[in-house]
Specification:
2 helices; two-stranded antiparallel ribbon; globular; 65 residues; 35% helix; 22% strand; alpha+beta; 2 strands
């Protein structure tokens, strides 16, 4: 899924607050996957609700690998 398609899906579901920390995180993960990141762990940096930059490490699920 691309970041654009995630935004379209959220808009279709009536979710309008794209400044919620969830959406930038989803977009960052989509961007890493789109770049061809094949590693087991994806590291992204996103801003939280207090505008602090956070580093988040996500481990891919076994079914995804």
């Amino acid at each position: 899924m691309t970041a654009e398609s995630a935004e379209k899906a959220a808009a279709a579901l009536g979710m309008n607050d794209f400044h919620d920390p969830l959406f930038p995180a989803v977009a960052a993960v989509c961007a890493e996957v789109k770049k061809g990141n094949k590693s087991k762990v994806i590291e992204i940096q996103v801003r939280d609700s207090h505008n602090a930059l956070r580093k988040v490490s996500l481990e891919k699920a076994k079914w995804w690998q």
